[in-house]
Amino acid sequence: MDWGMKNRLSQLIQKDGKALFLPIDHGYFQGPTHRLEKPGETIKPIWQYADALMMTRGVLRNCIDPAISKPIILRVSGATTVVGEDLANENLVTSIQEIIRLNASAASMSVFIGSKYEHQTLSNLAKLVDQCEDYGIPVMAVTAVGRELEKREARFLALSCRVAAELGARVVKTYYCKEKFEKVVDGCPVPVVIAGGPKTETQQEVFDFVYDGIQKGAIGVNLGRNIWQTEHPVAAIRAIRAIIHENFDAKEANNLYEQIKAEKP
Known about the structure:
This protein is α/β, with parallel strands linked by helices. The chain has a single domain, classed as Alpha-Beta Barrel (TIM Barrel). Helix content is 42%, strand content 15%. The chain has an 8-stranded parallel β-barrel with strand order 1-2-3-6-7-8-9-10, surrounded by 6 helices. Strands 4-5 form a two-stranded antiparallel sheet. Helix 9 (203-215) runs parallel beside helix 11, helix 9 runs antiparallel to helix 12 (250-262) and helix 11 runs antiparallel to helix 12. The chain is globular and about 50 Å long. The mean pLDDT is 95.
């Protein structure tokens, strides 16, 4: 691994080997998502607690202060929406020149294993890796499942993560599953971060799956809606950060969350 790749990965994955990524890329297929109507305003109180921010080039250019001191994971796949025929029909929508021009520390794209567009998205991942490796830029593969929620089980997720790693992804983002999640992580030769998925009913549920996922080998999370769609996003991200970087368990994290909630602004 060359110096540039090591340097960029060290910006994303902290010295303790863990990471908290904050994605605000949901608008690329959902439009003005609830509480993400103005992305720059959404992250103002919380970006400092993240290790990296994930977004599209449009949001980066128009909503984020160029002086921000956080590495950027640039979402580079898209060209489909929630009102279209199939969310899996994604393509690469950002060039390697743009990734470099925007000084991204990493690029990310989705792959849809088991979908009609599996070959297309996996081929695009391989192409993106080829382009980014030339410039020492890590690629994070997002193992998406779209509407096929029943496939959030260990065997399917393990397959998705392993294939993404085999094609050259340096980090893989995948969903958590309660049963046998350790097999997902053990079968993937690159670091795994946990996706959040739809917002949960309670914050305790979030702390529970984050803690369990870390115990089973994930290096961290890539959580958006379960942070910035909550009533108390600062409390939420600080509690999740405590699990990842301060070895809090789920109960301790929830206590911290309640404590921060009670503090005066």
